[in-house]
Amino acid sequence: MSLPALPLAPGTGRGTVLFVEGPETWSVPEQDAVVLAVREGWWPRLEIVSQGVRACVTDGSGLASRPSLGVAAVGGIDRDLLRPGEVVEVDGTAGRLNIEGVSEQPVVTALLERADGKILLLRRSDRVGSFRGRWAGVSGFLETPEPLDQALTEVREETGLPPTALRLVRSGRCVLARDGARVYVVHPFLFRVERAEVRLDWEHTDAEWVDPEEITRRQTVPKLDRVWKALAGPADARKS
What we know:
This protein is mainly β. The chain has 2 domains: about 100 residues, Glucose Oxidase, domain 1 (3-Layer(bba) Sandwich); about 140 residues, Nucleoside Triphosphate Pyrophosphohydrolase (Alpha-Beta Complex). It is about 10% helix and about 40% strand. The longest helix has 13 residues. The relative contact order is 0.16.
C-alpha cells in the first residue's frame, strides 16, 4: 500500500519499522536497514546515518524541528498504520510511504443524526466477517464509483431508511484504519434524519441513539471516533 506523506527530507530509504518514543528510549538499532517511526517534535542525532537507519517517519508535520538527518524523512503518517518489524519504503522527495504486504480496502461509513444531536450506533452481529459485537455506524465496502451512492445504499439496506428520508449534512476526509494486513480507507458521511425508527438487517443486532461522546466509551470498530471527528462541524450548523 502506498500512502501520501509530507516530504521532510529528500531521498529514499527502505527498511524494517522501529518505533522510538523519544530521546529517553533512543538506542542504536541492533539490525541494519531500519526505518524509525518517531513522535512529532523530536529527531535522532545526525550520526544515525552510520548506525543502520535508512529513513525516518513522523506522525506530525515536522515543522517543530525540521530534520537535518542525511536520510529520507516524511511526516503526517499515523503510526497506528505501521507495525514493528514490517518492511516499508520512504520517499522523502515525492512524499510517499509504501508498506509492503499491506492492501487497502475502500469502505463507506454513514453516521445518522437526529435533530437533538444524537447519532445512531449499530452493534455488529456474529454473522458479519469482521469486528463482531462491536459498535459502528452504517458501513459497507465501496462497490460503486461514487462513495455517496454507496453510503445511501448501505443506509437503506441496514436501517430501512430510503434516500428521501435523509439529508446530507457533510462528507469528511478519508480516515485510515488498519486491521492486520489490510487498511480500510473510510469515506465518512453525516446524514440528518427526521424519524428515529430503523429496521435492522442481519448485519446488526442492536441500535441505539446516543450522544456522540459515547463513541469513546464503547468498543467500536477501529477509528470510529476519528470518523466522527472528520464529520463533526459546529453544533449550530448541524442543527440548521
